[in-house]
Input
Amino acid sequence: MRFGSTYMELRYDDKAALLYNILYMLRRLLIAFLATLCKEYPFAQIQLIVFHCIGMIMYTVSVKPFEMPLLNKMETFNECCIIGATYHLFFFTDYLDDPEM
Output
């Protein structure tokens, strides 16, 4: 296969599973876009990253893009860790003006 390393460990029988690499690259582009163009809106940056993580979790759980079940579980766990770390970023924004809240 010509692009063997690109699609290694992915299921070939499902077209939705082959979209995994595209979604992975879209995350990188989203983060670069948010870092450069949305500097003034940190809450929106975090919110969009959370939405993307939720979408990736739903995709990974429903499509199961990898051949081995362990890889699907690891990817779901990684996405959950990313979303957990991203939720902590809300504490560092100025979303709430009153620190007593």
